[in-house]
User: Fold Aminoglycoside phosphotransferase from Streptomyces edwardsiae.
Amino acid sequence: MTLSVSSGPQVDLRVHPVDDVLDRVALSLRTALLPDTVVRKRRSVGARTDRDTWVRIERRLPEKIAGQGWNGTECAARLEGVARPAWHGCLVWREAGGPVMWRADETDLLPGAPVGTAILSQAPELPEEWWTALNSSLDALAAHRTRRIATPDTVTITQEMVTESLHGVFVDDFDTTVRHWVPAHADLNWANVTAPVFSLFDWEDWGNAPRGLDSASLWASSLAVPALADRVRRERRRDFESRDGKLMTLFVCSKILGPCAHPEDPRLEPARRMAERVVGELQAE
Assistant:
C-alpha cells in the first residue's frame, strides 16, 4: 500500500492527507476508526475506535528515533501511581519509498476532556481532587527509575543542552549544574491533562530530566493567567524551591524570552520578572 503523506521534515499532519494511514491502522488493529472523532495535530493524528479505545498515530523521521526508541506510551504502561490511560498495543511500520516511520498506539479513552490548549488564556475550573491527583501523579512519577532520557520538543535533554539554553538567554554568571535527574513527562501542559478527572496523556517524550521540569512546564503554560500560575507554584512548591527547580524555571523562561519570542506573547513580562528573581536567587547561593 502506498501512503499518501510524503516524506520529509516539513510534513504537517494537520493539512496533509492521511486516509491511507488511517485505513492501514484500522485494518491491522482490527477495529474501525470513527471519522467524526479524528483529531489532527502537527506530527500526530488520533481517533476513537468502535471498541471505545483511542488510537494515536505519529510520524517520525528515523533520525528523530534515538537509542531509546519512540515507545514512550508503551514504556509508561508500567508506571504505578500515575493517572494515565491504560495502554493496549501498537503497530509500527516504515513508509514505502521514503525514510519515514509510523507508529500507532491504542489506549483507553481519556476520562475527561483536555483542560485546554497548551497555553491557557482563561482559568479552568478544577476541583481540589484534581490538584491532589496532579501532585500524587507527579510525585509517583519522580520516584520511579528509568533508563529513558526525556526529549522535550523531541530534543534529548542533557546538561549541555540546559547550560546552552540558559546562557544563551541569561548572560548572568551562575552555576547551571543539575544535581537531580528524575523521571518526567516532559510535555506537561494544559493540552495534555484532562478534567474534571485528572489524567496525564501523550507520553512520547517522557524520561529522566532535571527535577522540576514538569512543574515548570505547567507553570509556563499558565503564565497568561496569573492566578493559575501562582496556584501551580503553590502546589508544586517543593520543586520550585529546589535548586534544580529554579534552573528549570529559567529553562522554560528561556523558551519564552529567547530569540523566537513573540512581542505580543502575554507571558513575556511575567516570565521576565520571574527570571530576574530566580537568577538573583541562584547568584546569592
